[in-house]
């Protein structure tokens, strides 16, 4: 079980980092900075990071977390709240993908505030998960 926990924490860290990084890159792409130091356009980089980095890490984090509470037979009221927060993170992940599609289609209206709100929501949900896991209220 310790290796499942290590896998879960490592993949969760990478997924959370990507959930914070993608909205920041969306902000850059939405502002249309042409003098960027990237060789590839921002929408292409965003699509690559979302598809080949963030999504696999999200899936691995969810699968390893599921394995953790099945193998370890973990229960408690805090777990329900944690799963609700993780569901919110999944929703933020999906919304990030939708904003990337809007950027690719050059629909930049409301992209800047939506990206900012997405980053704030993601960070808040990550903090909620961290607090719930460390304090385990309602155990």
UniProtKB/TrEMBL annotation:
Superkingdom per UniProt: Bacteria
Instruction: List the signal peptide residues.
Output: none
The way it spans or sits in the membrane comes to:
Multi-pass membrane protein
InterPro entries per the UniProt record, alphabetical: HemJ-like
EC number(s) given by UniProt: 1.3.99.-
Cofactor binding, note field: Binds 1 heme b (iron(II)-protoporphyrin IX) group per subunit.
Q: Tell me what reaction this enzyme catalyses.
A: protoporphyrinogen IX + 3 A = protoporphyrin IX + 3 AH2
* Broad enzyme group: oxidoreductase
* Pathway(s) it belongs to: Porphyrin-containing compound metabolism; protoporphyrin-IX biosynthesis; protoporphyrin-IX from protoporphyrinogen-IX: step 1/1
Keywords, ordered alphabetically: Cell membrane, Heme, Iron, Membrane, Metal-binding, Oxidoreductase, Transmembrane, Transmembrane helix
Q: Which cofactor does it need?
A: heme b
Q: Where in the cell is it found?
A: Cell membrane
Q: Which family does it belong to?
A: Belongs to the HemJ family.
Record's function text? Catalyzes the oxidation of protoporphyrinogen IX to protoporphyrin IX.
What is the protein named? Protoporphyrinogen IX oxidase
Q: Which source organism does the UniProt entry give?
A: Billgrantia antri
